[in-house]
Amino acid sequence: MRIVSYSSGGERDYGFLVSPEQFVPRYFVEDALRMELPKNVKDLLSDGELLELVNSVVGKIPIESFSVESVHLEPPVPNPGKIICLGLNYLDHAEEAGVEPPEDPIIFLKPATALIGPYDPIVKPRIVEELDYEIELAAVIGCRCRDVEPEEAYEHVFGYMILNDVSARDVQFRGAQWIRGKMFDTFAPTGPSLVSRDEIGDPHNLRMLTRVNEEIRQNSSTSRMIKKLPEIVSTLSQGVTLEPGDIISTGTPAGVGLYQKPEPKLLEPGDVVEMWIERIGTIRNPVISPE
To answer: Considering 44, 74, 104, which residue would you say is the last residue of a domain?
Structure first.
């Protein structure tokens, strides 16, 4: 199952991809099932039986007139309760930064106001000089959980998407906390869809690629994560309730702009950042100025 959130004619809704180019809107699935679906993605994710019903009818509904290009794609989960991010979770990224990988994961949060869709523009704030990109595999929680063991973690993950952890390096490293350099509006492009766990298989064996203006910058694999998803979910759930729709972004590999050789290659208005993760798809975001 691949869930997309979209807007059209001033209204927002969600639907289900049946091909990279076509989708079935929520209300068509309601008609086919003769029952109402939750009005938001978070509530849908928590109902496993309903998801099975939806999956059984989506491919049987006529979809000739519903193309992805006819709507504006929004973040697949537009209103998560939490966006939890990990820092320095790839050995090669820690090496390029010249630091030792942490024994415990570095954790920070992004606000929901940072979210944008898979093709929306990243806005470079006036106060930011060093704008950077980070391709990351993001897991989305499906079932509410707390204090779960690693072997139970996957039961609580609905699926995956791409998240670009856009970062203002000059702001990030100005003080002891990273969060301000990570929290600006538009600093969390996500998508292109939310892909259910069964369609991905092993999340630690996915190729990942970042291009800036067609130049390859990051070329890696999720196999290089230091902390794997079962441990990440278990650690985060210790004393913290993870809820349907919560996003966990798992860190980035080497190749970010700040550490390009022989000199940094940071983002400027006019650049286009394209990110691809195997079996998930591609997001593509232009960089613009506030004007």
So the answer is: 74
